[in-house]
Amino acid sequence: MHLELVVAKLVTVGLGLLITYQAYRGYRTYGSEPMRYVAVGFLFISVGSVVEGILFDVVGLSIFLAGSIQTALVAIGMLVILYSLYGQMPAGADGGDDR
C-alpha cells in the first residue's frame, strides 16, 4: 500500500464531501434546485475518485473494470453538475424581466 496515495485520495474525498455538504446547505437554506444537483454531482465525483482503488485492491476486480466504473461515476457526476448549470430554470428565476 502506498501511504502517500492513500492520503491524497482521502484529502480528495474530504474536499469533495465538503463541497457536497456546502452545496446541500445552499439547497436547504435557499431552496435552490441547481444547488441540489451540484451536491449530488459532487457526491458522485467524490465517490468515483476513490472507487477504482477499492474495487481493484479490495474487491478484486480487474483494473479495466474498476477504471470503467470509476470513469462512469465521475462522468455521471459531471453530467448532473452540467444539468445544474443548463437545466430548465423555474419561471421568473432568471432575474430578468420579460421584455
Model regions low in confidence, pLDDT < 50 over at least 5 residues: none
Approximate shape: elongated
Helix content: over 70%
Distance between the termini: 62 Å
One letter per element, helices H and strands E, the order comes to HHH
Question: In words, what does this structure look like?
Answer:
The longest helix is centred in the first third of the chain and has 28 residues, at 3-30. The termini are far apart. This protein has helices spanning 3-30, 33-59, 63-86. The chain is elongated and about 45 Å long. It has 99 residues and is mainly alpha-helical. The model has no long low-confidence stretch (mean pLDDT 88). Helix content is 80%, strand content 0%. The protein has one domain (3-86).
Condensed summary:
The protein has 99 residues and is an all-alpha fold. It is 80% helix and 0% strand.
Present the secondary structure layout.
Blueprint: H1 3-30, H2 33-59, H3 63-86
Summary tags:
3 helices; 99 residues; mainly alpha
